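Deliverable D4.2, example record:
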Amino acid sequence: MKQIDAFRDTATAFCKWAESAPVAPADDVDTAIKMLSKLLALVHELPELFDEEDTPGATHEEWLTVYKRFGSLPFNYYASYSEPHDTADPSPGTGDMADDLADTWRDLKGGLALYQKGNYAAAVWEWRESFSVHWGRHASGALHALQCWRS
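Output generated by the structure prediction step:
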């Protein structure tokens, strides 16, 4: 399916970028904005497939390497609202850009491992489910903060 292939290609590009050496901080910001925007759009195009298989996870050391890589961005911490619909307490928390991008990488990487094993349904399920419960908030929070910095 072309929707799955498009998401896989973008997830692969994001993971390769996350595992690469940093470039000029402003260029990395532009890359992050483009990739996060594309991932957030494409995840909604994925079909509703399901298969259960344990997701091969990245080690803490691998995650830490990616986390440190994103320390080269122009900022790390930003104001964030964990529940933006709770207007009774409008005080912000603190978002962590390196954590947002490293967690997005880890969740995408797990789905890619399932895809590479040939279990496309489990890969799609992993990407959709982890988006709903985890990386979607990280990616959208990071995108907002990056876009505000860029503007």
